[in-house]
Amino acid sequence: MSEQEKRVQGHGPELVPDAALAEFELQLARAMRRVDAPEGFAARVMERAASPAESAQKVVVMRSRFGMARMQAWAGGAIAATLALGMFGAEQLHQRHVREMQTALANQQFAMAVQVTGHALAQTREQLQRAGLNLSE
Q1: Quick check: is 80 in a domain?
Q2: pLDDT tens across 81-124, in order?
Q3: What is the DSSP letter of 101?
Q4: What is the tally of structural domains in the chain?
């Protein structure tokens, strides 16, 4: 029995309080026990390492694409920045248009108010003149 198995079963210095955890650790300790290599394994590995023809056929050469990936990342960033700038510009243009419309409406309302006030003053003067009060002096 290994040290881990002894600890899990409560024979070692560290006791495991949770039964499910204890069972898991016991299974883990059993799964990780030392297993001897099959007979002839070392010879087969050394044979494969010694034959260069077979190993050369399985080598995959990958070209460096770091430069291309960096350029793609840069291009993506540039596109994102352009889109963000375009959206900002469109929003500014929209806000300017809204301000101009509000200004035009306010000017129109002011002109109408001045016209109504002028008309009311003219009517008041006429009424005062008919009443015998002359304000032009």
Answers
A1: no
A2: 999 999 999 999 999 999 999 999 999 999 999 999 999 999 99
A3: H
A4: 2
pTM above 0.85, yes or no: no
User: Both tokens of residue 102?
Assistant: 């509000």
The amino acid occupying position 17 is P
Q: What is the gyration radius of the CA atoms in the chain, in angstroms?
A: 46
Helices and strands, number each (H, E), in the chain: 5, 0
Query: What gap in Å lies between CA 119 and CA 127, rounded to an integer?
Result: 12
How many other CB atoms are there within 10 angstroms of residue 26's CB atom?
17
Q: Which domain holds residue 123?
A: 89-137
Within a domain: 70: no
- Domain edge (last residue) among 57, 79, 97: 57
